[in-house]
Amino acid sequence: MREERGFLRNVDGWLIFIYLMLVFIGWINIYATVFDGNHGSIFDLSRRYGMQLLFIVTAIMIAFVILLLDMRLFMNMAHVFYGMTLILLIAVLLVGTRVAGQQAWIQFAGFSFQPAEFAKFATCLFLAKYLSTSGVDLKNASAKLASMLIIFLPIGLILLQPDAGSALVFLAFVMVLYREGLPAWYIWTGFVAVTVFILDLILPLWVVAIILALVTGVLIYLNKKTLRNIASAVLLFSAAVGFAYISNYAFDQLAPHQQDRINVLIGKEVDMQGIGYNVNQSKIAIGSGGLFGRGFLEGTQTRFNFVPEQVTDFIFCTIGEEWGFLGSTVVLALFLALILRIIFLAERQRGPFVRIYGYGVAAVFFFHVFVNIGMTIGLVPIIGIPLPFISYGGSSLWAFTILLFVFIKQDASRLAF
Amino acid sequence: MRDPQKNRKRQIIAMIVVVFLIFVARLFYLQIVNTDFGRAADNNSLRNVVQHPARGLIFDRNGVLIVHNVAVYDLMVVPGQVRAMDTLKFCNLIGITIEDFRRNLQRARRHSRFVPSLFEPQLSAETFGKLQEHLFRFPGFYAVPRTVRGYPIPAAAHVLGYIGEVDNRIIENDPYYRMGDYIGKSGLELFYERYLRGERGNRIFLVDVHNRVQGSFRDGAHDVPSVPGLSLQTTLDIEVQKFAEQLMQNKRGAIVAIEPATGEVLVFVSSPAYDPNLLVGRPRSVNFRRLQNDPQRPLFNRALQAEYPPGSHFKIPIGLIAMQQGVINENTSFPCDQSQVGCRPHRTVHNMRDAQAVSCNPYFVAAFRRTIQQGEHRNPFIDSRIGLERWNEYIRSFGFGEHLRIDLPGGRRGLIPTVALYDRMHGENRWAFSTFRSVSIGQGEVGITPLQMANLAAITANRGWFITPHLVRTISDTIIPDRDFITRRYTMVDPEHFDAINWGMYDAVHAAGGTAWRARISGISVVGKTGTVQNPHGENHATFIAFAPFDEPKIAVAVFVENAGFGGAWAAPIASLVIEKYLTREIRRPHELRRVMDANFMTTAAH
Is residue A163 situated within a structural domain? Predict the structure, then answer.
């Protein structure tokens, strides 16, 4: 039995512990990356580690506030949060500040924040609320359509900024839908589509068509007893070739730097001075860490700015270089523990709302970790999204904190529910 | 169970775990299996900067600095670190074209992407200064300070030689050298390369991606300081050297002066000369090509490598060897019989001294005949053969037919007629003295370098011995480069035979009607002998060898002026001006000086 002690009663200690660990690791590595020996105080707000410390303190204050609130507030206000987020996403397009070609920031009372970061929370909450409404079943077309709408509205608005990285995160909610009964067929279609798309880039269109024909042939052979399957196989084949043709066309429509990123990833191009530079430098930094790493503040690659965006998107390079394979594995293990713990807690909820919300949180964290670490080790194309709790930045830290602590609070309240 | 999708939980967890396992495996590969990345990281952030040693300085015999070092900057590039930049500005700063830039970068890229390559050599301190403040905008580029040669007194280019970058052949043959090192290519720079070059050092810097040096790697624990090269104390008198080069302006030829007692070379002029500063820095290749294509062949070291017929100078060893072998003595006289060889009109010759003074051709033909044909065999062919064989031993003891082992690369042996040579030319026993009688007056199959001529003058000054002529006295004030440079080499001729020769040479300068009267210097007893070398291609060559003062010789000198005609008219005054300059440090014959300086014998091409 858990001890009942004020607002902290029933709060999951594991999640709090992992959260604090990750935030601490993040700050340490931001310090190591920016450290130059000239600035003594860790509270120096002109340095990024000073700022991050401020962000961490405020994030923990936000966490406390969430734990003090009544969790029914979030469930009841889900549609309000979602609506406000959509308004903010529209507002940012109108009054936002343009940074590096993206209109993603809103300046407000001396602070600037990214609505897209908070949209993850609001969407997750609203999706959970909708799916947990009695009578909603993902086997029905209307429910599928409504869920997709909830996910794709913010995606569309964020793509207008344009911030493809943040928009992609929302695709993580497909995992939630799958858990809640979306037919596997959707997942397979997506998988085949991505496979065909990549094959399409590596091989000429006619080769892809032959491969698809062979696969179709095998499928027909395996299912030769029923004519219906043959018909659907031929139909699928035509659809796949059509998709290959369209994706070819679509790829040509992408901006050149996006084409390059994809080409570099699939190994079609090796341009170490252009887009390949980031990945290459990142791999060099991580690879130079070895088993034990170079040690705290001893990294040469990250400290001397060989790795781009190193305190934000490429912070994992610093971890890899200074803490080596062991340190990197510890960080990965922490994330895995975080995600599995969330799923575990989500599954033990009585009501569907918290379960769905928990899956959403786990999906968002997983997607971020998958893409962020995946790109630094060269397994995923470069998509600029932060590593939760570790990357430098106030908006993302606050948003992830809210995402996590709302779940913690709900989990803690489950007995009172 | 209310929830029909429970199995999907397991699928999702399985997928997440698999992704994390793949990541761990990938990290294992990147960080532990594949070591290339660690090495690439060192290249990224550690910069090995070669510390080029300063080459040794070169001084003249009076301690005057004649070769020093000037700071320049080699612009290096690490192609893998070059990012998009303002190429045009960069090119303007260092004074190259965009095409040069592309070509240089391409070449560096072919060499290596991560190892620094030389991008543009030898930026002057001024050019580098302009570039330096902008260097942070050009990642991948950095400058390495190094030194090139500077010559405060633009003289003695042929002796000093020049340096250049090592080529692949040198790198393959000598493990010391690395790409970008400099090596002596000629002259003393080449001969004393081992001492002059010093020891290359290395410093390791930490640099960031913006090409900014962040400090020493591990506080310089792995740095190797460079060791400067050793200095050379040469035997040259740079003041006289420069003066001698001026005397030879608009003339082809050579002047070599030696201190007889020590074998130290005081003056070593090959003309036309060139300013050694031309072969330094970025204009070097252009200037080098121009000098190479010059029809007057300024890069050719005539003093060391030109094999001229010695003309009348050869009468000195001819007479000496004849006396030493006892076929004549100093009082022997021969009539001036011009049936076989011509002669200038002169007073009656009573003895060797007279013969030397007036340089009587028939006298020395007769003396040489006696030396070669001593009647040891009935067959005159075989008799000549025996005589020539024996004479060869004697003449070689004068340092003829060998390159004298002077401390300069590329010395020539000259040509001394041998039995083998005539056998090859005419067939065995089909030649006799008459075949090569012109050798007795220094024509025909005889070739002597100006250095050997000057050495002959030193031998006469020393009365029978010499020390191997050399240009370096000590290295770093202590090391004597070669024992030969302090060891006397005796000729096979005894000292007493030199009286007649030396007095004859004294008369040539000082007696009424002497051929070398223009060599007279008031207060100094110059001893000399003129030579006029017949030249079938054009105007005769003028030569003169001399030493002074007579009683205590301080300088022995040989002068060769191509196409200048009679030796007494041009070579003698040049030699005497050099002697005067060296012994008195001033010229009290401005008229003679002007006459020599104004003379021009370069109107024709070199023969």
Answer: no
Q: Does A374 touch chain B (CB under 8 A)?
A: yes
- Residue A108 located in a structural domain: no
pLDDT digits (tens, 9 = 90+) for B313-349: 999 999 999 999 999 998 998 988 888 888 888 888 8
The model's confidence at residue B266, banded by pLDDT at 50, 70 and 90, is: very high
Q: ipTM value of the model?
A: 0.85
Identify all chain B residues contacting A343, using CB atoms and an 8 Å cutoff.
9, 12-13, 16
Best mutation target, A273, A334, A335, to test chain B (most B CBs within 10 A): A273
Task: Identify the pLDDT of residue B1.
Answer: 39
Whether residue A358 sits in one domain with residue A292: yes
For residue B453, give the amino acid letter: M
Distance CA A168, CA A411 (A): 28
Contact residues, chain B, for A328 at CB < 8 Å: 27, 31
Cis-peptide into A162, omega within 30 deg: yes
- Residue A15 in any domain: the answer is yes
Do A247 and A280 reside in the same domain of the chain?
Answer: no
> Taking a contact as any Cβ pair under 8 Å apart, which residues of chain A between 343 and 372 contact chain B?
343, 347, 359, 366, 370
Question: How far from A12 is each of A2, A331, A348, A401, B258, CA to CA, in Å?
Answer: 10, 20, 13, 14, 101
User: What are B545-554's pLDDT values in tens digits?
Assistant: 999 899 999 9
Is the whole model's pTM more than 0.80, yes or no? no
**Which B residues in the span 13-42 are in contact with A, Cβ-Cβ below 8 Å?**
13, 16-17, 19-20, 22-24, 26-28, 30-32, 34, 36-38, 40-42
First to last CA, chain A: 17
Are residues A376 and A338 both part of a single domain?
A: yes
pLDDT in tens, B441-459: 988 889 999 999 999 999 9
Bridge partners of A105, per DSSP, are A97
Pair (A291, A208) in one structural domain: no
Contact A261/B at CB under 8 A: no
Same domain, residue pair A245 and A281: no
CB-based contact B26 A347, cutoff 8 Å: no
Answer whether B179 touches A (CB < 8 Å). Answer: no
CB pairs under 8 A between A and B: 113
Average pLDDT over chain B, rounded to an integer: 87
User: How many angstroms away from the CA of A189 is the closest CA of chain B?
Assistant: 17
Considering the domain architecture, whether residues A339 and A209 belong to the same structural domain is answered as no
Cβ contacts of A370 on chain B, cutoff 8 Å: 19
Same domain, A204 and A326: no
The domain boundary residue, chosen from A253, A287, A307: A253
The reply to whether residue A305 touches residue B208, judged by beta carbons under 8 angstroms, is: yes
Q: Indicate the residue among A224, A253, A282 that finishes a domain.
A: A253
Q: Answer yes or no: do A392 and A291 share one domain.
A: yes
Domain of A375?
6-68+272-415
User: B428, B419 in Cβ contact below 8 A?
Assistant: no
Task: Please state, in angstroms and as integers, the Cα–Cα distance from residue B253 to each residue in A124, B296, B581, following that order.
Answer: 98, 11, 19
Number of domains forming the structure of chain A: 2
**Percent of residues in chain A assigned helix, strand, coil, to nearest 5:** 70, 5, 30
Is A242 a member of any domain? yes
Distance CA B108, CA B82 (A): 11
